[in-house]
């Protein structure tokens, strides 16, 4: 609707408008697709409803077919606008970044600084090499990725990972009917948990994780359920449980899903873990009983916080850029907390061994 209003008010330069109209819409593919969304509607039905609303509220003189095609063009070409810490805010449309192709092993990642889209390299990129991003969550197996790309973007991916059946650098798991049944059940539990209060959702999410316990923690949907359970634990201020979930991701999932230590996702998750650790350190100093179960591990929380801070500062300039607001926030946090690099590597190794026990507990 904003595009239509700007166009109506003649605040959309003609060359830029034409560049937008040159983008693919896949309107015929949307119209013929029978895939349904979580609300039970086909995507085309959703496009029809959105277009009708946009026409009614904008007062545009454009035809309904034109607005439907414009809506389809937006759906197929937008990125998710996020904070620097990857919290979703809305949609971002650029006729230039929309031209980036997909790969399940991309050589760049998108981060945002305000409303500015930035591409961060994930590898050494020779001159004249095509830049790729990932349109979807590439931590799912090849069959799932292919299905999502066909249903949402209407193409078959032929990247090196899809061509060889590789996920996160490892061969795809063999077919397992028992796993398929468990996966169906845990996805149902996750969906049901999303309708409940955090206190009531916790038990369902723990049940889902229990069902998946016999499978590797990095195999989806284990990481997805674990992340949901982590956020739920934060919402209920269950700090010890949240720490256990975060450390499972830190040790057993993120190094496989995002192998670069400075991948934006890993850096952001280390930052969240650092903030959680500092919160726990404060509770320990106050003698708070809510984290009493962690006392048996004998963790020096100050050393852990120092080590995590070093990992974040070592990666954030590469993941987000030295001038990013997120990088500035990290540096300011370290300055306020009086964090430096005075602790020796042996101290970190001793404390990391204790953290590993928390993750295994």
Please explain how this structure is put together:
With 361 residues, the protein is mainly alpha-helical. The chain contains 15 helices and eight strands. It has helices at residues 2-8, 14-21, 27-32, 43-58, 64-77, 142-153, 160-164, 177-193, 198-211, 222-235, 239-257, 264-286, 301-319, 325-337, 345-360, and strands at residues 79-82, 88-92, 101-102, 108-113, 116-121, 132-133, 166-167, 170-171. β1 (79-82) and β2 form a beta hairpin. The model has no long low-confidence stretch (mean pLDDT 94).
User: Which residue ranges are poorly predicted, with pLDDT under 50 across at least 5 consecutive positions?
Assistant: none
Query: Care to count the β-strands?
Result: 8
* Cα Rg: 23 Å
- Main sheet record: 2 strands, antiparallel
The secondary-structure class comes to mainly alpha
Proportion in β-strands: 5-15%
Q: Helix and strand string, N-terminal first?
A: HHHHHEEEEEEHHEEHHHHHHHH
List the helices and strands and how they pair.
Layout: H1 2-8, H2 14-21, H3 27-32, H4 43-58, H5 64-77, E1 79-82, E2 88-92, E3 101-102, E4 108-113, E5 116-121, E6 132-133, H6 142-153, H7 160-164, E7 166-167, E8 170-171, H8 177-193, H9 198-211, H10 222-235, H11 239-257, H12 264-286, H13 301-319, H14 325-337, H15 345-360
Parallel strand pairs: 3-6
Antiparallel strand pairs: 1-2, 4-5, 7-8
Helix pairs in contact: 4-5, 8-9, 9-10, 10-11, 11-12, 11-15, 12-13, 13-14, 13-15
